[in-house]
Amino acid sequence: MKFEYRFPDIGEGIHEGTIIKWMINVGDNINEGDSVAEVETDKVTTEIPSPRSGRVLELKAKAGDIIHVGDVFVVIDLSGEANAEEVSIVETREPVAEEETAGVVGEVIVSSEEIPPSTEDIVSTPKLDKKKKVLATPVARGLAKDLGVDINEVIGTGPGGRVMKEDIRNFKDSLAKAEAPKADATKVETPKFAAPKYEFEKPTFEFKEEVSGGESITRVPLSRIRKTIAEKMTQSRFTIPHTTAMDEIDISRLDDFRKKYKEVLKEEDISLTYLPFIVKATIVALKTFPEFNASLDEVNNELILKHFYHIGIATDTERGLMVPVARNADRKSIVELAKEIADITSRAKDNKVDLSELKGSSFSITNYGSIGGYYGIPIINYPESAILGLGRVVKKPIVRDDEIVIAKVLPVSLSYDHRTIDGASGARFLNLLRDLLMDPELLLLKS
């Protein structure tokens, strides 16, 4: 029996992807869960697993082709796995929109559970197993395991009763409220999502060699992620009138403070960089000048001030710039931020970050100094109002207390939306940031 596997909805508003490479060939025998193709979306590259076991009859696309959600892209011979009527039902029903499938790279699953189909034009109805397993993706199951929740007790609100991440979190919250007296408020655990490890391979697209005006050129197709970056940068630059303020900050005392605890925390496998201190100082400045933690509603001509502090950390990856988000950074200690920033940026570089972790930032920081840059003019992460750029920390002579001394100096650049923020506010923001980073004790007191 033939089973036409349609490209699944992997959530987060993604409607199409580009096939990077096939991981199967016509004639191969595959098992349910085996990866069939590596697909690049607007955000990440992910492996698409098979929902059925059988023999591959046909591949409907080739590497480099764009595949849309709902398109048939693999035909599988089920070899008697199901009767013709059941296969027909699976083939004709519309793809189920599944928020969770985008949760972890390489774990996008179309459930093999039988879901009651529409009865239109169907006379008989397939029999459901009396003992039916809960419908949920590996992401949801992993989250339930991390939170200590029995997924079988959770009522799913997704399509076909599918258990979503939000269902699990709500269930966990209800349990926490019931056990409030026993709760340990000092311990905050962040769910860790598992994802298969694999090395990134460059797309196998064909480059085009041409001769133009007597000169040889090569046309290199843009990856889907690079196209998205280009669109976002264009949208930001041509929508927001940027202006940039720059300053140099003496962080000699901060450097001494960091060195004092760096080795102690290293024993706990925590790398204490300048960045978590800068994030904390930035949040104090954002609370003082809320127009920087905002976005402009151009339709209603309203400034939306955000009372949450989700800090995007611009990260250089092999696939291009990605901005994973440290959520509720104002509620975390410097040590907790150090751990979280190291985690999300390393997973972004390894293409193991959840799509939801790349959305919802209220303010962004880009650290071009980590690869040697000194000054830059960062482009705002639209629709945010501002972005902070960090240059390379260097030793240089400065005047301190009427004496020339050698200091550790951090160059910073603050780009902001000149429609809603005046130059004076930009200067005040940097002045406060400078005061906090020059005096780590004041920073701890205010954060």
The class by helix and strand makeup works out as: alpha+beta
Measured between the Cα atoms of the first and last residue, the distance is: 64 Å
| Anisotropy-based shape | globular
Give me the number of helical elements: 9
H/E series: EEEEEEEEHHHEEHEHHEEEEEHEEEEHH
Q: What ranges have pLDDT less than 50 throughout 5 or more consecutive residues?
A: 82-132, 182-203
Give the number of DSSP strands: 20
Biggest beta sheet summary: 8 strands, mixed
Report the sheet-strand fraction: 15-25%
Helix content: 25-40%
**Cα Rg:** 26 Å
Mean pLDDT: 80
Question: How would you describe the overall organization of this protein?
Answer:
The protein has 447 residues and is an alpha+beta fold. 26% of the residues lie in helices and 25% in strands. It contains 9 helices and 20 strands. The protein has helices at 84-92, 138-147, 165-178, 224-239, 252-266, 275-288, 334-349, 423-438, 440-446, and strands at 2-6, 16-22, 29-30, 35-40, 45-49, 54-59, 66-68, 72-77, 208-212, 215-219, 242-250, 294-297, 302-305, 311-317, 320-322, 325-326, 363-367, 386-390, 394-400, 403-417. Strands 11, 14, 15, 16, 17, 18, 19 and 20 form an 8-stranded mixed β-sheet that branches.
